[in-house]
Structure formats: C-alpha cells, structure tokens
Automatic annotation (TrEMBL):
Gene3D superfamilies: 1.20.1050.130, 3.30.70.60. It comes from the Eukaryota. EF-1 is composed of 4 subunits: alpha, beta (alpha subunit of the eEF1B subcomplex), delta (beta subunit of the eEF1B subcomplex), and gamma (gamma subunit of the eEF1B subcomplex). Interacts with elongation factor EEF1A1. This is Elongation factor 1-beta. One of its GO terms (molecular function) is translation elongation factor activity. Belongs to the EF-1-beta/EF-1-delta family. Keywords: Elongation factor, Protein biosynthesis. Residues 139-225 form the Translation elongation factor EF1B beta/delta subunit guanine nucleotide exchange domain. Residues 78-118 are annotated as: Disordered. The gene is EEF1B2. Residues 103-130 form the Elongation factor 1 beta central acidic region eukaryote domain.
Length: 225
C-alpha cells in the first residue's frame, strides 16, 4: 500500500485519485492517518489536483489539534491504494523484508535505478487500472417545495405537471402535500439529479412554466450523494 512518492507530482496524482470519492484517508472523520499523510506532503498540491488540495486545506485547519485526532499514526505504507507502494522518504521501511529492494535511497547506484524502475512500473499499473474504472457520476438529492396559487388549485394536476418534466439525469421520487395555512397545501417532492446535467435553475424555470397551477418553487433541501 502507499501513494508512491508524495513529494513528487506522480505521488500527488495518486493521492488526488484516491481522494476523489473520499473525504479522509481512512474512515469518515479526521484521524492520525490524515496526519501521517499530511506530514509527508511537502506543501499544498497544485490547483488542478482539486481533491488532494481540498483534503490538504481541510486537514491543515486541524494543525493545532492534530495530536488529539483519533487513531494511531502508522507508516505511510499502511495507507493508500493496495497496488501502489510508498516510496516517500522515511516511508514504510518496517513493512519490507530484508531481501527486498531499498526504495529509500541506497549507496548502490544500480539498486537505486532498479527501485526507480519498479516504482514507475507500479505507478503505470495503477494508472492503467484506474483508467479502466467507470467514471464516478456526481449526483444530488433535492427536495422541492412547489406552491400553488390558492386552495382551489388542483394539486393532483399540479403534481402531474411537475412529474411530466423529463430530462437526462433527472429521476423523480416520493412526494406529499404539506399544509401551509388558510386551507392551502404545497407539493413537496423529491428528485435525484446528475449534477452535470440538471440544475435547480432549470427545474425552477420548467416547473414555474406551469403558471396556471404553480405560483413559485423553492429548494427545501439539497444534499450531495
């Protein structure tokens, strides 16, 4: 396990890919795993490595309390993708057998070249496997409040109009009528959208286009999936 050399662009790229669908190195809260990897990174990752930079800035905010974060700090080679070996300075030497190649610097020039070749091969294998994985689709769960004009509005027809809106990346879910006062009820309806294809502005424009039934639309809740 590992991230390659975290002081190199290739190692930071592995870290960025690893964090594409994770908030932390391990688990769902900051821990000593994050501290160990943070301390191995020489500085903020470049802006194009958005996942690694987001994680770096977040963990940096815990700098004064990092000693109190949960967990036990382990060698760098205990974290990261299973098919990439850590080669950052002073990395997971304790996880290697005496007969293994020294990846942390050697007086033997031939051995150092061999270690470099092996590292590049492993990184290439990791990149190849990553390229074959399907891209993650960013989705959001949205709860909409759709308000009618008055208590005489046909709410069944209003909901029918809303659900008639079809788009690639839009799936309608459950709904209910919620009293708002004076005998008026609003339609509260759930939907799941693909972020790159459907936005709240588009939903509002198309829903309020049913002006005979709809007075307004508001976003009651918005959560990333």
């Amino acid at each position: 396990m590992g991230f390659g050399d975290l002081k190199s662009p290739a190692g930071l790229q592995v870290l960025n890919d690893y964090l594409a669908d994770k908030s932390y190195i391990e688990g769902y809260v900051p821990s000593q795993a994050d501290v160990a990897v943070f301390e191995a990174v020489s500085g903020p990752p470049p802006a194009d490595l958005c996942h690694a930079l987001r994680w770096y800035n977040h963990i940096k905010s815990y700098e004064k309390e990092k000693a109190s974060l949960p967990g036990v700090k382990k060698a760098l080679g205990k974290y990261g993708p299973a098919d990439v070996e850590d080669t950052t300075e002073s990395g997971a030497a304790d996880s290697k057998d005496d007969d293994d190649i020294d990846l942390f610097g050697s007086d033997d020039e031939e051995e150092s070249e061999e270690a470099k070749r092996l590292r590049e091969e492993r990184l290439a294998q990791y990149e190849s496997k990553k390229a074959k994985k399907p891209a993650l689709v960013a989705k959001s769960s949205i709860l909409l409040d759709v308000k009618p004009w008055d208590d005489e509005t046909d709410m069944a027809k209003l909901e029918e109009c809303v659900r008639s809106i079809q788009a690639d990346g839009l799936v309608w879910g459950s709904s209910k009528l919620v009293p708002v006062g004076y005998g008026i009820k609003k339609l509260q309806i759930q939907c799941v959208v693909e972020d790159d294809k459907v936005g709240t502005d588009m939903l509002e424009e198309r829903i309020t286009a049913f002006e005979d039934y709809v007075q307004s639309m508001d976003v009651a809740a918005f959560n990333k999936i």
